[in-house]
Design brief:
Elements: E1 9-10, H1 12-19, H2 23-31, E2 39-42, E3 45-49, H3 50-68
Antiparallel strand pairs: 1-3, 2-3
């Protein structure tokens, strides 16, 4: 029997590391609608679903490849 997969959550340092941007750049992109918004874990805690961050990265790679064509 296959058990359900729990989605991985990335905290801000992990997101910064994965995308290579600073926290201020990430929050600026969120405000402009260009980066996925985090989910609230508690009153003072947020995280990003890893799949949303990975999809954003994949979109950037695809857009870059299309520009080269």
């Amino acid at each position: 029997m296959v058990s359900p997969v729990t989605p991985a959550l990335l905290r801000l340092p992990g997101v910064c590391s994965q995308v290579g941007l600073s926290k201020s750049q990430i929050y600026r992109l969120i405000r402009s609608g260009e980066f996925p918004a985090p989910v609230r874990l508690g009153p003072n805690s947020v995280a990003w679903p890893a799949e949303h961050v990975h999809a954003w990265i994949a979109g950037k790679v695809l857009a870059s490849a299309e520009q080269r064509l």
